[in-house]
């Protein structure tokens, strides 16, 4: 799981940026409209999308990469603990007033508050601080990110894939 969907190769978790971009877009829309009403957006994904999404936010990242020679018993990366069946991750946008400086983002993993990298506490951080840490999500270009890999595909399969992705079929 670490090599296929985690931190071993950045391309594996950067592909989840499309989900992160949508979250940022949704939050930004609510802030721009000054909308404080209760609202939710839910994504239901399999573990192959869930784990890269967590990695995209820098969660459960160890200081040293996992290898077969060096397995730290106190490591953070334990998919059996954070990505079991029914695991969930939520980002909450809240505000007491409609001003952008008063919006707050809190992360929850399996219904428990979790500290996001870049935030000072598990209670979360201001929208501005969150955006400063994760602004790269707004620049997500999934096809550009993956183009060098799709070019390696055999030509017939590549055309078929393009047809499917662009709804040409």
UniProtKB/TrEMBL annotation:
Transmembrane found in the keyword field: no
Any one GO MF annotation of this record: inositol phosphate phosphatase activity
Keywords, in A-Z order: Membrane, Signal
Source domain of life: Eukaryota
A GO cellular-component term linked to this record: membrane
Signal peptide (from-to): none
Subcellular compartments: Membrane
InterPro entries associated with the record: His_PPase_superfam
Keyword flag Lyase: no
Family annotation (PANTHER family): MULTIPLE INOSITOL POLYPHOSPHATE PHOSPHATASE 1, MULTIPLE INOSITOL POLYPHOSPHATE PHOSPHATASE-RELATED
Protein name: Putative multiple inositol polyphosphate phosphatase 1-like
């Amino acid at each position: 799981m670490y090599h296929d969907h985690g931190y071993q190769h950045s391309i594996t978790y950067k592909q989840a940026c499309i989900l992160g971009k949508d979250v940022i877009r949704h939050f930004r829309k609510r802030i721009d409209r000054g909308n404080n009403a209760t609202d939710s957006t839910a994504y239901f994904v399999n573990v192959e999308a869930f784990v890269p999404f967590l990695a995209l936010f820098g969660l459960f990242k160890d200081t040293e990469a996992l290898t077969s020679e060096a397995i730290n018993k106190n490591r953070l990366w334990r998919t059996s603990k954070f990505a079991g069946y029914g695991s969930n991750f939520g980002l909450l946008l809240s505000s007491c007033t409609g001003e952008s400086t008063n919006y707050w983002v809190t992360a929850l993993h399996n219904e428990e508050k979790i500290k996001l990298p870049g935030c000072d506490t598990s209670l979360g951080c201001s929208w501005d601080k969150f955006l400063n840490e994760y602004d790269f999500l707004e620049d997500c270009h999934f096809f550009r990110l993956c183009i060098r890999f799709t070019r390696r595909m055999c030509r017939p399969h590549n055309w078929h894939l393009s047809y499917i992705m662009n709804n040409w079929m």
